[in-house]
Amino acid sequence: MSGERWADQDLFQPGIPAWRIEFEFHTGLFREFRIATANQGLLNVAQMWAYATDDWLTFRDMGEDSNKSRWPISAEWSQIQNASLRGNAVPLERIRESERVTSVEKLIPPFHGYLTSIGSRLGATDLNSCFEVAFDVVSKAEADGRISTLEKLAYKKRSFAT
After folding, report:
1. Per-residue pLDDT tens for 99-145?
2. Calpha distance 124→116 (Å, rounded)
3. Domain boundaries in the chain?
4. Model pTM?
């Protein structure tokens, strides 16, 4: 049956081996790619293929190096990596939950620095008063139309979709 389908496209040649490669992406992986909708998934098919064939799975020719990850990519796999659906896409970056938590932890020192800088300039004496004066400053900037917390939150939620 599949031979007949391929024969219609002049791609099937009896007696010559054919490879079939499939990848299945589950919800958790989409979350790690920050893909939240089916449309985003379709828009990122090329990058997902690049991830699957560059980072997740490879087929290599045996080499001299004891580290198999340094063995050369086989010519057959190189063709698979460069399938027409890929174009020039680079792999998507995967953000695992532990990395997401770590990235939030990395924000604490600069956040604390900004918070205490605002607090020290506006007479804060402890953590609560730092938050109070910072809240007042941000609220005033938002009321003046200089910033929009709702817009920034919406943008960042899209960027870091869970």
Report:
1. 666 677 888 888 999 999 999 999 999 999 999 999 999 999 888 88
2. 8
3. 2-81, 97-159
4. 0.49
